[in-house]
Amino acid sequence: MIWLPLKDRMQSELIKRGHCVGCTKSFSEANRHSPEDYSEIEIVECECRRIYIYEKKLNSYKRATIDELTRYGFSTDPDGIPVD
Ligand SMILES: [Zn+2]
């Protein structure tokens, strides 16, 4: 098992269960965007401005990085995204 700091473990557990790590809202209540050229994913934007990527094939969520958002053509203000 890979050791992760407790906070990271709690965050990945929340994400696995389909909840935002910041406000614990369900991803089902978040805004979902389908990038035109990337049908295999959805960009999930929570009310608290944290952004996640939903991988349809894996049926799993992860935190989006700025690089990924740029690649998927999702324009957002990086300074507006909470980092924790
Ligand atoms: Zn949130």
Task: Summarize the structure in words.
The structure is a single chain. The protein is α+β, with helices and mostly antiparallel strands and 84 residues long. It has a domain at 27-76. Helix content is 20%, strand content 20%. The chain has two helices and four strands, in the order H-E-E-E-E-H. It has a four-stranded antiparallel sheet with strand order 1-2-3-4. A hairpin with a 4-residue loop joins strand 3 and strand 4. The model has no long low-confidence stretch (mean pLDDT 92). Zinc ion binds at residues 20, 22-23, 25, 46-48, 50.
Explain the layout of strands and helices.
Elements (H helix, E strand, L loop, with lengths): L5 H11 L14 E3 L7 E5 L5 E5 L4 E4 L2 H6 L13
Antiparallel strand pairs: 1-2, 2-3, 3-4
Zinc ion (ZN) binds next to loops.
